[in-house]
Amino acid sequence: MDWRTKLLDPKPQARQDYASLATPVYRGSTVVFEGQAAVTDDWRQAENGYSYGLYGTPTTLELASRIAGIEGARETFIVPGGQAAIALIYLSYCKAGSHALVPYSAYGPNKAMAEGLMRGLNVEVEPYDPLIGAGISALIRDNTALIWCESPGSVTMEIQDVPAIVAAAHAKGVAVALDNTYAAGVMFDAFAHGVDVSMQALTKYVGGHSDLLLGSVSARGDAAYAKLGPIYQQLGLAVSPDDCSLALRGLQTLAVRLDALEKATMKVALWLADHALVKDVYHPALPSCPGHDIWKRDFTGATSVFSFTFKDDIPAEHVVSFINALKVFRIGMSWGGVNSLAVVYPGLDRPTQDFGGRIVRLNIGLETPTDLIADLEDAMAVMATTL
Ligand SMILES: *Cc1c(COP(=O)(O)O)cnc(C)c1O
What we know:
Helices cover 36% and strands 15% of the residues. The protein has helices at 3-7, 45-48, 58-71, 82-93, 108-120, 162-171, 222-235, 241-273, 292-298, 316-325, 369-385; strands at 75-79, 99-103, 124-128, 144-150, 175-179, 197-201, 215-219, 278-282, 305-310, 330-331, 341-344, 359-363.
């Protein structure tokens, strides 16, 4: 063979029996088949063999099967982010003329998709009170195709009675999807509580270091798997095997990180709960969090995100100066990484409550809690001098 042809020889020359403890990073779009008869284009790669990199290389499928194993799923799909996971679920369950229900405490971009893309496709997504419980039954219509739960809710942290919602939904043949990002897929057992499809932003706790974006969609059984798979294929939700490799590494330290984060977060939350300028602390392990009793019943722990409100006489501008005075806490969205973050929600949209720009969300990282508390104390002192 000419050297030019040799350059393109795809057959490995090195020994292939390297039994690494780490999952190799398989990059690749094309899969070569044994013969023409074996050529397929099938998203069910875990069962039917590899067909195309779009549905995942072995690195992606390793991450998928680890998540499925941890969550107790029939199968898990890995997608480019938590928001892509939300899109996959909407588009798998809803079609023109469908009705869906979403708690008004849901992740903002979920509601934006409901009002934007889904409305444009003639799917009506109706917001509901996250604390509705069994009362959801009254909102279910003949064309209801999907009920979303997210527990705790984004920013306002309402814990939902997921088993009651599931019972009402299943009595009328409606599927329930859960955004289980807060619980990292482990602190709340979605499938033991009857949920049909569970998603998480792996970006948060599984990644754990603010350096990747990935999502997972886990199907409880065959019905959900069969609904999600074809849409997953049609949308072409491919992910990078390098990101999957980082997520696989993140899984190895997830337990120790969650343990440390839970303890540190509790310390900061309890300190805030005692502070003279603080009105309420919305941390699931504290009775001041809406749905706290349900958290005690259904969850095995808390993680690192919570919110608190300042007392009513504190003007919104002072809350902004508090945020700007923080030095250890960084100002930023997202969470689940090693750094503590703070952000105020000046225009938080809730139908029954007006927080007046006084609700702050914190993500606690792996810094020493006494340093975090000192940082909050200093920033509160700055705020108090401007009062
Ligand atoms: C961050 C987040 C998402 C979206 O995840 P991305 O990976 O950033 O797209 C979805 N749901 C919740 C509750 C989140 O906090």
